Amino acid sequence: MSDSLSIIRPDDWHLHLRDGPALRAVVADSARQFARAVVMPNLKPPVTTVALALAYRDRIRAALVDAGVATGTFAPLMTLYLTDNTRADEIDRAHESGAVVAVKLYPAGATTNSDAGVTDLLGKCGSVIERMQRVGMPLLIHGEVADPAVDVFDREAVFIERVMKPLRNAYPELRVVFEHLTTKDGVEYVRDAQGPVAATITAQHLLYNRNAIFQGGVRPHWYCLPILKREVHRQALVEAATGDSPRFFLGTDSAPHARGLKEHACGCAGCYTALHAMELYATAFDRAGRLDRLEAFASLRGPDFYRLPRNTARVTLRRETYVIAQEVPYGDDTLVPLAAGESLDWRLV
Ligand code: NCD
Ligand code: ZN
Question: N or C: which end of the chain has fewer CB within 10 A?
């Protein structure tokens, strides 16, 4: 049993960096863990155009400088927020920008800051999807229906039938990433589907099942969307992440919310994992006896799907006890990392 693991520097293919003081508080955590990150566009107002994405990238770069991150060590890869009103020529601009790597679909009302999201994908966004398919721009999908009649634990499985399959039947060459996959149904769909489909998997969905939300009382820091599922789903996700398919890769979905908004009568969805992402993933892979697959999952399959060069620098993880901070500063507020105060078995050095 080796106590040290050297892998190519990983990337985070799904990250919420926020804006303003929150951005300045968290950006160095991701830069310490990852070389690149796909930055989600669910700001208020959302990042719906290339011009807004470029301005957001400038603010991220300025925040990196303020946080003392050495130039060139962390690259934000930008995304556009798809709305009912997105136009096909915006896709051309995105494709030509060299800065925007993908478009994000939030079904309206599905999660944090998704009010401007899509109400009827095939009905309203056909010409945009058609253009994305033509230029090869990936569509990143929050794969849950927002229908209040559907049980919150079933929203991913229902999405596959109601939206994913019709979408991919209509646009079979569209490059799709099923974001933050949480179910066995999702794993089977992505593993077996025809065409260019992949999925990101978070650390929390590899490490925990839904019992974590209710252990000894309500635990708001384990609440994210899509919500943690039953153990059988966690096991399917671990199998996918540690298996042979190149379609499953790392996306933390690190989603910071101030402590007070998590520990609240109507707490926000999102787990803060950027601080200790690789420690969490390494612990999950180690528990599955598949540390040998961590590099493929964290560092190789993502760039291959996105058709970007793999990183060349390497990082080292060491088997040693890592105690997760109780809280970290977040502008004038504080942020509680996932599993605060608990210990992990690996440390990124
Ligand atoms: C994300 C957020 O807070 O922006 N929350 C979450 O629970 N994952 C939004 C999202 O990715 O659904
Ligand atoms: Zn997210």
Answer: N
**CA separation for the pair 134, 142 (Å, rounded):** 22
Q: How far apart are CA 311 and CA 227, in angstroms?
A: 32
Contact status, residue 340 vs residue 273, Cβ threshold 8 Å: no
142 C-alpha to ligand 1 centroid (Å)? 9
> Token digits for 311?
């990183």
pTM above 0.70, yes or no: yes
Which atom of ligand 1 lies at the shortest distance from residue 42's CA? 4
Using left for φ > 0, alpha for ψ between -120 and 50, and beta otherwise, residue 75 falls in beta
pLDDT tens across 61-100, in order?
999 999 999 999 999 999 999 999 999 999 999 999 999 9
Please give the share of the chain, as a percent, with pLDDT higher than 90.
97
22, 66 in Cβ contact below 8 A?
A: no
Q: What is the pLDDT of residues 25-39, one digit of tens each?
A: 999 999 999 999 999
The residue ranges of DSSP E strands in 100-217, in sequence order, are 100-105, 139-141, 176-178, 197-201
Q: Tell me if 200 CB under 6 Å of ligand 1.
A: no
Residue 276 near residue 203, CB atoms below 8 Å = no
Does ligand 1 come within 6 angstroms of the Cβ of 255?
Answer: yes
- The answer, yes or no, to whether any atom of ligand 1 lies below 6 A from the CB of 122, is no
